[in-house]
Amino acid sequence: MPLEKKIEEFLRDVRWVISTSEKPSPKEFNTVVKFLLFLVFAAGVIQFIFYIANVYMTEYLLGPTTTYALSPTQEAVAVASSLGAIFAVLIYIMIKFG
User: Fold this and answer.
1) What domain range includes position 49?
2) Would the keyword Membrane be found if you checked this record's keyword annotation (predicted)?
3) Number of structural domains, the chain?
4) Minimal CA–CA distance to 50: which of 37, 68, 62, 64?
5) What is the pLDDT of residues 42-62, one digit of tens each?
């Protein structure tokens, strides 16, 4: 099955799920938005901690003349957690207003 056909079917299914879902109450919506914002904050904190840890470990192991860059694994974890939280917020808002 071609990729375009899979994407079209996925979008069709997403629209169907959104159209059949119930609208959340304002209290539920506010609670979920606060939780999703907390996830975004936590992703940022994790990203910051990885960066600071990398700076200190690099300086300790290699001396102060090195550049400060994240390892590929640290970058992947930070980006994946940030993107996951952002997509969760966007999907929930799309369902709320869809």
Assistant:
1) 25-97
2) yes
3) 1
4) 68
5) 887 887 788 778 777 777 777
Q: Which of 32, 9, 16 is nearest to 96 (CA)?
A: 32
Contact 55, 16 (CB under 8 A): no
What span, in angstroms and rounded, lies between the C-alpha atoms of 63 and 79? 27
| 51 within a domain of the structure (yes/no) | yes
**pTM (predicted TM-score):** 0.46
Tokens describing residue 50: 């990885």
User: Please, what is the Cα angle at 60 between 55 and 65, to 5 degrees?
Assistant: 70
- Residue 3 in domain: no
Helices (H) and strands (E) counted in the chain, each on its own, are: 3, 0
